[in-house]
Design brief:
By secondary structure, the protein is α+β, with helices and mostly antiparallel strands. Helices cover 32% and strands 14% of the residues. It contains six helices and seven strands. The strands form two sheets. It has a five-stranded mixed β-sheet with strand order 2-1-5-3-4, covered by helices on one side. A hairpin with a 2-residue loop joins strand 1 and strand 2. Helix 2 (77-89) crosses helix 5. It starts with a strand and ends with a helix. Bound molecules: FE2/S2 (inorganic) cluster (FES) (2 copies).
């Protein structure tokens, strides 16, 4: 069957096997940050964005991405760098194997919710397994990032989606502005090399 897709910002049109998974497809196109950790939809390592929604590419037929945009960590370098710095500061990347999936889902969460509670963070990231840590470092990194983001509303890469929020006067208000990369983290190399393994 033939599918069309936007991957890494480029339009593709290809003939694929009907049983090809999205995970296999993106890796065949050089997106080695997307890895297979379980094949049972249980680890989150294969997370990609289908349009704006995080999905497990190991359990999604590539055909389901027909006429959609697929984003992997390779397409989110600045955001990954920005948040990766906070992960590194907290020692939350020991072997680094879980980082691509963890970063993808954290970016999705922080785009969706401007100020998630601890419970919302835990619930959103519950599908991301890390065999090395107790998740405390990741939690500290996210909370530190949230504090940092609040102090720098004009220089964000990972920003909550701009939504019109009705205020008391019934007017809409918008938040957030232009982006700037923050720091050199390890996340860029994760995206470029696929990280550990
Ligand atoms: S490889 Fe997809 S969830 Fe583990
Ligand atoms: S740091 Fe090793 S699996 Fe998470």
């Amino acid at each position: 069957m033939r599918i069309q897709m936007v991957l890494k910002g480029k339009k593709l049109e290809e003939e694929i096997r009907p049983d090809l998974t999205l995970l296999e497809f993106v890796r065949e196109h050089g997106c080695f940050s997307v890895k297979c950790g379980c094949e049972t939809s249980g680890c989150g390592l294969c997370t990609v964005f289908l349009d704006e929604t995080p999905v497990l590419s190991c359990s999604l037929p590539a055909a389901r991405a027909d006429k959609k945009e697929v984003t992997t960590l390779e397409g989110l370098i600045k955001e990954a760098e920005e948040f990766g710095t906070f992960l590194a500061e907290q020692g939350a990347e020991q072997c680094g194997f879980c980082n691509p999936g963890m970063i993808m889902n954290t970016i999705a969460l922080l785009r969706e919710k401007e100020d998630p509670s601890d419970e919302e963070i835990k619930s959103y990231l519950a599908g991301n397994l890390c065999r090395c840590s107790g998740y405390e470092g990741q939690m500290r990194a996210i909370k530190n990032f949230l504090s940092w983001r609040k102090e720098r509303p004009g220089s964000l890469v990972i920003r909550a989606k701009t939504k019109k929020q009705p205020d008391a006067a019934g007017e809409g208000s918008e938040s957030i502005s232009k982006e700037t990369a923050a720091a050199a983290g390890t996340a860029a190399s994760i995206a470029e090399t696929g990280g550990a393994v």
